[in-house]
Amino acid sequence: MTDFSSVRNKVVIITGAADGLGEAIAQCYAENGMKVIVSDVNMEKGFRVVEQIKSKGGEATFVKADVSKEEEVKEMINFAVKTYGRLDGIVNNAGIAASNRPVHEYSVQEFEKVTDVDLKGVFLGMKYGIEAILKSKSSGGFIINIASLAGLLGNSSMGLYTSSKHGVVGLTKSAALDYAPHNITVNAICPGTFRTSIWGEAPEELVQDYAKMLSPNERLGDPKEVGHLALFLASDLARYISGAAISIDAGSSAGKITPAKWSHPEILD
Ligand SMILES: NC(=O)c1ccc[n+]([C@@H]2O[C@H](COP(=O)([O-])OP(=O)(O)OC[C@H]3O[C@@H](n4cnc5c(N)ncnc54)[C@H](O)[C@@H]3O)[C@@H](O)[C@H]2O)c1
Fold it and tell me: Residue 264's domain is classified under what CATH number?
């Protein structure tokens, strides 16, 4: 039987863990015995996630940090090391969406706002997280960066978000080579379309339409599915996987969907 118990007692920080994919990763990690530092700018939701984890017998603490601010990221890492005496991994998940428009219509201010969180935030988490993992002499150190399908492919009207997410994949691949000799794996997860609050006020109908358009199996992803992938990457079962940008998108990034005519559709009857 496949055994995930190697994750037990690993100390991990998850940024943007008060909601959405980060919360699902935090819940999955805690259920499997990891010591989880839930980090976010949203204190109310962050503490709620910690309480939920504790009510199920898991171990978690909250630390407020804006990933775009260097001092706050440093403090977040120091908090983890002070609380648990070590750091084994960090999931750089916090991210924001940008507006949809052609590149020449973006303002410089929006470029800076999105890049500060989606790219600089991941860089800061890696910079200070890796230092702490190295000092902890972790035998199973790991970095997981939550990129996107937009980290693998271009997207019309999504130039800002797409450029940051491509940057995250680039940082991931380079760092995988830097730290392979030091036993730290560095991977990116590239989600397709998941129903989380990153969609903001978009009506359910529109989100479902997007799912049909973007997802070959015509459904939205369940955040728990990202949690399961992140659990595998955090475990010692995945020590030979590094520098990978793993898509979790029902095949969206595999190629273009064209209408296919089956010769024997009766097989489905
Ligand atoms: N949901 C999707 O379909 C999807 C698809 C591809 C990639 N992603 C990526 O997954 C990650 C998580 O997205 P989500 O859908 O769960 O979003 P979400 O909006 O549900 O959750 C994001 C969390 O990050 C926090 N956050 C925002 N800015 C922050 C900052 N500066 N510092 C710290 N925390 C901050 C928010 O408070 C929130 O709790 C993001 O990086 C996003 O780009 C999501």
Answer: 3.40.50.720
